[in-house]
Structures are given as C-alpha cells and as structure tokens.
Amino acid sequence: MRSLMRRVLLDTRYTLVGFPTAVIGFVLMIAGFAAGVGTAVVWIGVPLLAGTLLVARGFADAERGWLSDVLKRPPVRPRYRPAPEGAGRFRRIVNPLTNGQSWLDLLHGILNFPFAILAFVLTVVFWAIPIAGLTYPLYGIITSRIPGNVELPELLGIGTGYTVNAIFYVSLGLLFALLMPFMVRGAALVRAGLGRAPLTGVAELQERIDDLAEGRAAAVSAEANALRKLERDIHDGPQQRLVSLAMELSRAQRQLAKDPQAASDTISSAISATRETLDELRALSRGIAPPILSDRGLAPALAPLAGRCTVPVDLDVQTVGRFQAAVENAIYFVCAETLTNVAKHSRATICTVQLVRIGDILMLTIGDDGVGGAHVAKGHGLAGLADRLRAVDGELTVRSPDGGPTVIVAEVPCA
Asked: DSSP H helical segments within 259-297, as ranges?
C-alpha cells in the first residue's frame, strides 16, 4: 500500500509540476524558433536558434530527471558533442546547431505540450472528484439547506434529500478514488513514453554501442594476453626441455658405439624428460578449450579441472544444458585460471565450484578459505578474466578481503 501511494504521488508530481514547465518551455521554444528562422537570412537568427536549442536542452535535462522516477530507470543523458578544440567564437556559438540531439530536445519540447495538458487535466479530475465526493458530508449539510439548490442526483432523477445526495457523492468519490491510481499512472506513462525515445533513446543506443566496442576491445586484449602468456610459457618450459632433449639424444647417439651402457642411461633420461614435457604441454593446454568441452559441454569439462587441482574441490554443476561456444569457452577459461590461482596463491584447504543457470544468466561461483587479497585491478591476473567475460557481455565480481575467504562470481548472459 505504501509503495502504491508513493507511486501515485510521484506520478502526480510529474504531471502537475511538469505542466507549467511544459507550457513555459513550449512558449520559449516556439518563440525562439520562429524568431531564429525569421531572421536567419541576416545571421541574427543563427545565435537565436542556438540559444533556443540550449533552452530546449535545459528543459530536456529536467524531463530526463523526471523520467527516471516515472519509468523506474536510471537517468540517461546523451553526449552533446563539444565544439572542436581551437574553434572560433562563431563556431562555438553555433555548435548546438550541429548536434542532432539538440534538435530532438526541441522537437520534444514542442510535441510534449498537448500531452502535458492531457496528463494535467486527467490528474486534476481524478484527484478533485474523489476529494470532493468523499468530503461531501462535511459541507453537504450547508449546501442542502440553500433554497433552490439543485443537486446532481436530482438532475439525474435519483432522488432528493441530503442523505441521497451524500450517498451519491460518496459513492462517486469512492469510484474515482479506485480508478485514480490507474488513470494517473496511465497519464504519466503516456507523457513519459513520448519523451523516452527522443530524450534517452539515442543515448541508450550510444551506450549500447560503446558497450559493444568496449567488449570487442576487451576480447582482443584478452586473446592477445592469453597468446602472449602461452607463448611465454612454451618458451620458458617445453621449448627449453625439447632443446635439452635434442642435446641428450645427440649425446646418446655419440655414446652408442663407444659406451652402450652410458647411451642407454642417456636415452632413459631423455624418455623421462619427454614424459615431463608432455605433462607440461597438457598443463598448458588446460587454458585452451579441450575437445571434451566442444563435444560434451561444460559439466564434463569442469570435472577434470576440479580433479587436477591440488586443493580439494567440491564441484556442484546444476545445469547440464549446452550454451553458445563463446559462453562455454569463457566459463571454462575462468574456472581453469581461477583454480590455478587457488592452487598457487590462496593457501586454501578447500575450494567450492558451483555452476548454475538463473533465468537467462549462467553463473559460475568459485570460493576458497584461503588468505584472500585477490582483486581485478589492472596488472593482476583477474583483470584478464574480467576482459574475457566482457567480450561475451559478462561480468566478474570478486570479494576477497585480506585474510579471506575469497568468492569469485562470473555471470554471463546465456539466452
């Protein structure tokens, strides 16, 4: 009940306070636009038009603040392109004329006027009738005794007398009081709906474009970092081992004729080095999507990751469905890298991994009882995971106070 009343009061404020604002804005914009167009041929109209667009921008900003309350959305303000650096005075004056959003602000200020009138009238009517009807018993006693006074019930042929009048007006007040939240809400939504597209639609589209560009950049950065890391690991590990292995085999080849026993020992050492190199290559390949991931999905692919971790892992996979390859690869990579970090840095005794789908969100939660201190600042390993998730519109959340415990949550849309 309290939330409903608050909703009604917010909508009422929007329609009542917005009405005089819309009237003032309409008059200023029409007058400024007409004067600017009429005198544009002598260049006086150009700064007049620019000033009118700035006025429209001010009224549009006020409307955007109200829209966030009515539509229950965070306020969105579009970017107004500034004048080029080093531009002259005239170029700075006419800069509003070069912004498409400024003209949308002006268009909204003009089209908003009739809708503001309609919303204002509906709000006043559906507030006035309930108040007047429900309070009729207070002043009806006086009006019923005025000679020659004809009440509405009598005109409708319902009856005469103060009691009949009171019942009629109170019933009418109750009816309009029940309808009032819906009518006021509807009036506010009609007016707000008109303003959303021109005032915030372009900004929301631009924000989405920026998010996609940021996600693409994050994907490129994540892939580049992963390739550099893989190249460095191969160079520092398997490549050095293979060079040493080649040298060992060459030595065994030279020893074979002179000292077969020494050659046999060298070959045995080379075989051991080969096994170690293969193990290291398998470890490096864990950061790359394994065949089991593409063939059978996340649930079977995460089980070997948990089994290989040196810290005991409690794995809880609550979804067995298949998802887009990019989504599965991102979740697998995050899990593999996080478990590697747990094993290397956390000093934990237990780790939990949970994969669950909640609506259209695939959520991976990894926790441990280690020393904490993990964060996603640039220059740290988790920053790469955050970039990889942003590439698929995902988000990484890290809660890791000093002393632990650590909880890392990766959320990825999977609709």
From this structure: 260-285, 291-296
